[in-house]
Amino acid sequence: MDLIYTEPYDPERGIVELGYLSNCEIDIELGTIASSARNDFEVILYAKELTVKKGALIYADDGSEIGGMVYGVKVNTGNDEITLKCKLWRGMLKDHVIKPETGDDYYLFNGDANTVLADMINNAYDGLIVASDQLSHISVMGKIRYSSVLEACEDMLAKVNARLNITFTGSQVICEALEINDLSDQICLDNDYGIPMIAEDSDSGYNHIIALGQGNLKDRQVIELWRTENGTISDDPGAEGIPVGLALRSYVYDYSSVETPEELERAAVKKLNELGPTKKLEIEPGKLDVELGDIIRAMERTTGISMKKQVTRKIIKGQIYNGVPYMTTEYKAGD
User: Fold this and answer.
1) 309 touches 281 (CB < 8 A)
2) Is 245 in a helix, a strand, or coil?
3) pLDDT for the residue numbered 60
C-alpha cells in the first residue's frame, strides 16, 4: 500500500497531488459505529524536509477506503519527527449531523439507498465526499432525528442487510450501498491453523426490558420486550422461547423524556441490544479478502465457541521505508 499526499484540499482547485510518502510509520484504525473504532490514522514522518500541512489529503493509491484529511500536525525538534493526525473518510462522515428541516420532527427518507445517501452527503463535504450517482437497487425508508451522517447511514443500511462501501477514485470519495456478503461458508477461521483469536460467549446480559416513558403511576407509558432463545426480540410474553425462571434477567429502563410510544419502543430495542449477551470475536488472520460489514465464521476449538459475525474493524500498522511498504493488517469481528 503506497500513500499519496496532497496540498490542502481546495474545492475550487480540487485535489493537487504532491507525491508519495517514502519514509514514515503508519497506524490506521477503520471500523463501523458499532465497533467504536476511532476511524482515524496517524503518520509519523522521518524526513523533516517533507512538509504536509493541515487540510492536506493522504490516501492509498489502490482505490480502497484507506485515506483521509490531515487535521493536526505535531513537530518534535528533538528527534526531527513530524506526526500527522488524520481522520479517515469514514471518520469525516461522523462530523456532520442529519437534522430535521425547520418545523419538522424528523428527517424523513424513502427511496433508493444511493439517492438517500446523496441527499445526506453531497452538500456537506465541498464535493470531496459524495454518494454514487448509480442506483443501488436497495430500497430504504425511515426517519432520523439528530444523528451523525455515519451512524445514520450505517443504521439505515443495516436494516436492509446492506453496508456502506467507500472508495476513492483519485478525485472524489464515493459512498454507496452494497448488499452484505455472507462469506461464512467460504471463510471459517479456527485455532487449528494457529490463528490467534479471542472468543467470548457470555449470557450474563439482560434478556427482558421494562421501558418506562411519559406519565405517572398507572398512566405511565410502559413497554416490555423479551429476547427469545433464537435471538429475536418480541413484545409477546407468550411467544415461543421467552425466558422464564432462572433464565430471566430483567432491566428497568427509565426514559421519561420520550415523546411517543413508537420512539420509546425503538429506544427499548436499542437498549436491550446494548445490554444483551456478549458475543465477541477478535482475530488476527493476516490478509483476508473481506470488507467492513462482510460476514465470516470462526471457531475456537477448545471451548467449542462458533460464531457468524460481521467484520467491524480493520487495523493497519507498519512503515514505509525507502518507498517500500511493510504492513500488518488485523481484522476484528463482532461488536
Assistant:
1) yes
2) helix
3) 93
**pLDDT score at 191:** 58
Do 110 and 213 belong together in one domain?
Answer: no
Residue 255 shares a structural domain with residue 316: no
Residues 6+ apart with CB under 8 A from 9: 15, 55, 56, 57, 69, 126, 128
- Whole-number Cα distances in Å, 139 to 153, 311, 315: 13, 23, 31
Whole-number Å distance between alpha carbons of 233 and 116: 28
Q: What are the φ and ψ backbone dihedral angles of 283, each rounded to 5 degrees? A: -135, 155
Cβ atoms of residues 3 and 26 within 8 Å = yes
Assign 66 a pLDDT band (cuts: 50, 70, 90): very high
The CATH code of the domain that includes 57 is 2.30.300.10
Predicted pLDDT at 36: 84
**How many CA atoms within 13 Å lie on the side-chain side of 34?**
20
Is there a single domain that holds both residue 65 and residue 192? yes
| Spatial distance between the Cα atoms of 98 and 101, rounded to a whole number of angstroms | 10
Q: Closest Cα partner for 169 from 13, 17, 64, 88?
A: 64
Q: Is 119 within 8 Å of 99 (Cβ atoms)? A: no
Q: How far is CA 284 from CA 29, 34, 149, 314, 333, in A?
A: 14, 19, 30, 10, 10
Pair 292, 325 in one domain: yes
Integer Cα distance of 267 and 227 in angstroms = 15
Q: How far apart are CA 314 and CA 259, in angstroms?
A: 38
Instruction: Yes or no: say if 53 and 45 are a contact pair by the CB < 8 Å rule.
Output: no
Domain extent for 267 = 205-275
